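Q: Fold this one first, please.
A: Sequence and structure below.
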Amino acid sequence: MARISRRGLVLGASAAQIAAGASSEASPSKDDDDALIALCDRFVSLTRLQTELMIRWGKQEHWLAKNANWFALSKQEQRVLREARELFELDAQIESAMSERKQIARKLQAMPATSIAGVAAKLKAAIEEIDPDDNPSAFRILTSIVEEMEASPG
């Protein structure tokens, strides 16, 4: 007898739940899944934006350390330094993105996916939390699962 892979088991269980839910009158609507997918997409874009902002923030802080003796300045002196304005603006943008991401993550935990596309979107959002350098195997496996789910019909 052929052995069923864990991935096949997960996909089969997901498909069975979706099929069972499709016949139920109380099943979530396509609009619910569309909202879930949109929220997942927003989470992914915020994560990538936050990463970009943090890179820019680091470069700006490095420039200030090198050119304005940044770490020797008091907090008050740092606040009034014209060249530091971008750093503080970036800091505010990073905080805003982090806050919105936390809110979305809470919502995503409570929202059930009702299709393979919804499950794939939630996995994409989760993958954003994995550093590929820290756990390359898990990252590659999860990424391949999403690719397979997106390529499957339905």
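Q: Good. Now the second chain.
A: Here it is, same layout.
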Amino acid sequence: MIENFLNHSIILRVFLLTLSLWSCTVGSASAQRTVVINDNFSPAFQIEPLVQRISGRRGDILDFEFKIETLNRDTEIEVLKVGLRQDLSGQVIQDEQASQLNPIDILTSGKLTLSRDIPHMIQGVVKVPDGDASFYSLGILVRDHGTKSERPPEFDSSSSKPVTKAGINFITHYVLRVDIDVIGARGDQVRELAIEEGRIYSYNGLPKVSTIVRNATDTAFEYELRSQLRAHPSDRSFSELRMSMPVRAAMEGEERYLGRVLPKCSVRMESMLPEVLLSGRYQLDVEMLSGGRVVHRRTFSLGVNSEDFPGQEVKSKHIGGGIYASPTQIELSQARGGQRRLALEIKNTSKQPQTVSLNALNSRGTVLTGLLIQPESFTLSAGRSR
């Protein structure tokens, strides 16, 4: 809505803000002027760390704190406990309506004034809840209220009408987490998590394995998910996949494969399939692990059409009759340091044995000399590769 002052609120989630450079023309046709907004913005304050991970036994009282520091100016902030929820990507966001379920006691809650460049500590305590859960994730929201322009309205000298102005009110907004590992808890309730919607879909033209973990309980859980694609129950031709939440896809190391699902939420777990996927029927076996042991298994039956994954053409080529060759392009060289020997994989996806003959030909169809292929002919049983 545009009136005498157009006010947009832009929330800074955690500490990231991206605003593209743009310009606009405001005012009447007789008195136009161009307003340019640059993209050099920073949050009003910073907090470290964003996640506090603590541990204790049921009934223990645990302390925690976060360091907050304002930048460039004095800032008024508000600190309050909130519930947490997730979207399917695994991204955690606040749920202010569920704050009554949060057992945190914030010692420095409410509205505070931060002095410029003077660190302040957000302190609190939490009692580890009773029950069988081995993990809890609790939320704290810290935000300022932005800065609005207090300049008086301007008027067009030719018409005495107010000049339309555009303004932006920036709000810095952090969602902090206190994660609790419960010592001595069995965490058997993790078995109540459901593994749903196993599927394979095209991501940038290549096959990606995906499933959804649904948590219908009132407890948060951490787990690991592994999957194995098979053309038949004894098939071992596909790699075992370690799956991750989309929000962690860019992470390195073991942290990438840690799944976390909050109460009454669902998250997607995914992994790219490194092998070439051919048309046919497959089974997708999924295992959930917690504390190093398998707590849940689920098998999905899937139908696949290789034409759904055009990006595979750079990995494997269908020769005909169910025979596939990979890689699709090779380079050999007699130059110093060049590749002089390599292997091709030939796979028979048909239901009948196939005899394969290999020849090296140039673009005119004549045999290339100086190139040795071993073996030149062989028979492949159904479903086998060489």
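Q: Anything worth noting on the second one?
A: Confidence is low (pLDDT under 50) at residues 1-31.
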